[in-house]
């Protein structure tokens, strides 16, 4: 928890990177080869992420001391946003009745999500810009279609027409009515690497919190959107429950995965301080673990699918038994 009215919750749900090439190939091969991905183009991913938003809402109202049924309390949530899978999960939860006001997208300079919210123009960028928050680098966030589907009241025909336009032209112009509806539900802020690093440093210095680069994008976005994230709690804020916006920031990873970026933002001493004080112990244990060679699962062309799956399952169980010293049922 940052301060009263500013909350930070950490479900482990990495935001999606850009997978346009994979998407294109998946469309032509998935039926033939029975492929299934676990990135957020798979509806299972945002469905699971809905739980994070419900859990966050319950923890926030608990911390501010109100009942979940209080009709005067809604929360805004700021999410590091790339392919929009996480924010789609939040919007689906809102559609089911979760009292969220604004879902706010914190994006880096690959900013198509910010541009469509600001202008109504959903235009694919000509290039991907390298950033230090690369898990949310995206040129065309494929979950935008899901947001439009629920925004339009599940109007299949309208959204299908829009997506056909996107497929053929790499762009879509929302008219004024739909753009305004979009802005009634979502906000956004575009964050540079410099701003991300500054937010990471301020979180460490002012809040004693070590953030990963993608969470730092959300922290910077929250401040840019006016949530006064780093302002200390005062009596005026204490008495403003029900009027001031209550905001939560979604964290999507641990900084232990991003030594290079954390070192750029905080310096070598900053990384060393994090490693000594806050680096997860189970992650430290992994650093001394011998890396396992990859396991290749081959399909003998003469074997039936059920038989192949049994062989693969046996291999997987043996790996768990021998490498991790545990049994599986």
Considering the chains and any ligands shown, give keywords for the structure.
329 residues, alpha/beta, five-stranded parallel beta sheet, two-stranded antiparallel sheet, 13 helices, 7 strands, 10% strand, disordered N terminus
How would you briefly describe this protein structure?
This protein is α/β, with parallel strands linked by helices. 49% of the residues lie in helices and 10% in strands.
In helices, the fraction of residues equals 40-55%
Tertiary shape: globular
Strand content: 5-15%
**Radius of gyration in whole Å, from Cα?**
22 Å
**Number of distinct beta strands:** 7
Description:
Helix 2 (44-64) packs across helix 3 (85-95). This protein has a 5-stranded parallel sheet with strand order 1-7-2-3-6. The protein has a two-stranded antiparallel ribbon with strand order 4-5. With 329 residues, the chain is α/β, with parallel strands linked by helices. Strand 2 (75-80), helix 3 and strand 3 form a beta-alpha-beta unit. It is 49% helix and 10% strand.
Question: What secondary-structure arrangement, pairings included, does this model have?
Answer:
Layout: E1 6-9, H1 20-33, H2 44-64, E2 75-80, H3 85-95, E3 100-107, H4 112-119, E4 121-123, H5 144-151, H6 156-169, E5 171-173, H7 176-185, E6 186-190, H8 193-207, H9 213-224, H10 235-238, E7 246-250, H11 259-277, H12 281-287, H13 305-323
Parallel strand pairs: 1-7, 2-3, 2-7, 3-6
Antiparallel strand pairs: 4-5
Helix pairs in contact: 2-3, 3-5, 8-9, 8-11
């Amino acid at each position: 928890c940052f301060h009263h009215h500013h909350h930070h919750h950490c479900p482990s749900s990495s935001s999606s990177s850009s997978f346009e090439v994979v998407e294109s190939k998946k469309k032509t091969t998935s039926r033939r080869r029975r492929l299934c991905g676990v990135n957020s183009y798979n509806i299972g991913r945002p469905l699971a992420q809905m739980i994070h938003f419900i859990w966050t809402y319950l923890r926030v109202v608990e911390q501010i001391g109100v009942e979940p049924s209080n009709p005067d309390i809604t929360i805004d949530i700021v999410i590091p946003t790339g392919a929009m899978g996480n924010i789609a999960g939040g919007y689906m939860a809102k559609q089911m009745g979760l009292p969220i006001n604004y879902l706010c997208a914190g994006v880096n300079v690959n900013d198509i999500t910010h541009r469509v919210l600001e202008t109504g123009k959903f235009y694919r960028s000509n290039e991907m810009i390298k950033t230090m928050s690369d898990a949310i680098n995206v040129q065309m966030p494929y979950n935008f279609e899901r947001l439009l589907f629920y925004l339009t009241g599940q109007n299949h025909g309208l959204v299908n027409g829009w997506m056909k336009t996107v497929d053929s032209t790499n762009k879509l112009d929302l008219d004024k009515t739909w753009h305004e509806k979009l802005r009634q539900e979502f906000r956004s802020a575009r964050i540079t690497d410099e701003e991300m690093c500054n937010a990471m440093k301020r979180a460490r210095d002012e809040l004693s919190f070590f953030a990963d680069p993608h969470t730092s994008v959300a922290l910077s976005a929250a401040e840019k959107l006016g949530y006064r994230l780093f302002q200390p709690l005062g009596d005026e804020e204490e008495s403003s429950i029900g009027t001031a916006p209550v905001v939560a920031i979604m964290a999507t990873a641990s900084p232990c995965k991003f030594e290079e970026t954390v070192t750029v933002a905080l310096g070598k001493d900053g990384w060393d301080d994090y490693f000594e004080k806050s680096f997860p112990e189970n992650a430290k244990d992994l650093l001394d673990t011998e890396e396992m060679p990859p396991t290749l699962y081959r399909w003998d062309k003469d074997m039936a699918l059920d038989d192949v799956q049994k062989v693969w399952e046996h291999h997987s169980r043996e790996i768990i038994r021998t490498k991790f010293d545990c049994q599986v049922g």
